[in-house]
Specification:
alpha/beta; TIM Barrel; two-stranded antiparallel sheet; 11 helices; 37% helix; binds flavin mononucleotide
């Protein structure tokens, strides 16, 4: 295995071979729920993230992206490739490309053989308090930083023995604040408290997955066990109050309509993430890529637009940028990368995406991100 510092200069065939090896390493650890497929499309039989009659939104995310294609044109005065610049700014942090991991809080409950299990520790109240959440968060934050990205971490329900969020903040603090903590939409003082903690950790920005209210184990309707912690929807006025706890940029994740995006602007959000939570919170929604152009039309350049759901290659990232997004988050593959190779795996996967994005830019005559416009893609009839 190469050193993490060598990843940025690794050639593409080696990156791909390493990625296959990392999937092989991850496979037994994520079984039986996840098969660590070489390409996660949500739709394979026995995919543990999708039950047969639910989860159509996650499948649609992937399928709709396949219906957009890139417009190759290499007749232009080019150089050796060094002139291709995929870098961007994320609230004052320079990124090598507009690609992030998406926050995923679930490793401990989803994967009984997780790499991040602490050997011999107890399970309490059927919560896997025996997992090393800090090691998982560190893999994400450190791996993203090594690839030149910014890592995101997630929040979890309250339990005296579960410190998932705090462990994530620790990893962010150790990385000089290079990370985005995601706070759930709690109905009590838990929300401002967690925002203040994120502020103290020096996070670049703070996010809330406002669509978490639809998660089976989170919602008021679905409140199901003894753990405290209820989440609820919030109006623009309520969100404005929430944001006032911090001076950090605030990102709202889980927006799927132009109206929702306009309300996020009214509330004072700095950015939104167009997301349907991989299809976990509402079945039968549109794919995220389908709503992107309308949302862009509604908010223009007023806020930054990020998107996630089914993005698996740099070419997919290119499609979102062409339709007006400022960046893309990738969820499950990065989780597999962390299981299979910790921070090295995460950095390697992101390097693969960055390489593919830069190659797509070269093949379409885009020297920088601003050149990636709607005329650089084909939207096929199926879309
Ligand atoms: C198992 C699982 C757990 C997730 N947990 C969270 C979470 O705690 N907070 C959050 O904002 N999003 C969560 N998400 C949603 C992801 O951040 C992201 O929106 C989604 O996974 C992106 O789609 P992709 O996995 O197809 O790339 C979760 C998704 C999955 C699959």
């Amino acid at each position: 295995m190469a050193k993490i510092e060598e990843i940025r200069t690794m050639m593409y065939p080696r990156v791909r071979a390493e990625w296959e090896r990392i999937c092989d390493e991850a496979r037994p650890r994520v079984a039986p729920r996840c098969k660590a497929c070489r390409e996660c499309d949500s739709a394979r039989p026995k995919c543990g993230f999708v039950s047969s009659e639910r989860g159509k939104s996650g499948i649609r995310n992937y399928e709709k992206l396949q219906q957009i294609r890139l417009a190759c044109d290499t007749i232009y005065e080019g150089g050796n490739g060094d002139e291709i610049d995929s870098s961007c700014d994320f609230f004052g942090v320079e990124m090598r490309a507009p690609v992030f991991n998406a926050p995923i809080a679930w490793v401990k409950n989803a994967f009984p053989h997780s790499h991040f299990k602490k050997p011999g520790a107890e399970r309490v109240d059927n919560r896997a308090t025996d997992s090393d959440d800090y090691a998982y968060a560190k893999s994400l934050i450190e791996g993203c930083a090594a690839a030149g990205s910014v890592g995101w971490i997630a929040d979890s329900r309250h339990h005296p023995l579960v410190h998932f969020y705090e462990d994530g903040l620790r990893a962010i603090k150790e990385q000089g604040g290079r990370g985005v903590p995601t706070v759930k939409s709690w109905n009590d003082d838990m929300m401002p408290r967690k925002i203040m903690q994120a502020d103290e950790a020096g996070a670049v920005a703070i996010a809330t997955d406002i669509d978490c209210v639809g998660l089976a184990d989170m919602s008021v309707n679905g409140q199901y066990d003894s753990l405290p912690g209820v989440v609820n929807p919030k109006s623009a006025k309520q969100l404005k109050e929430v944001f006032s706890v911090t001076r950090k940029p605030y990102i709202l994740k889980g927006i799927m309509t132009p109206q929702g995006a306009v309300k996020a602007c009214e509330a004072g959000a700095s950015s939104i993430v167009i997301s349907n939570h991989a299809g976990n919170s509402l079945d039968q929604s549109l794919a995220t890529i389908e709503v992107l152009a309308d949302i862009k039309k509604a908010v223009g350049n007023e806020i930054k637009l990020y998107i996630d759901g089914g993005f698996r290659h740099g070419e997919d990232v290119f499609k979102a940028l062409a339709l007006g997004a400022d960046g893309v988050l990738i969820g499950r593959p990065v989780m597999i990368a962390a299981e299979g190779g910790e921070s090295y795996g995460v950095a390697l996967y992101l390097q693969k995406i960055i390489w593919e994005l830069q190659n797509a830019m070269r093949m379409t005559g885009c020297m920088s991100l601003k050149d990636i416009t709607a005329d650089k893609i084909w939207i096929t009839r199926e879309f």
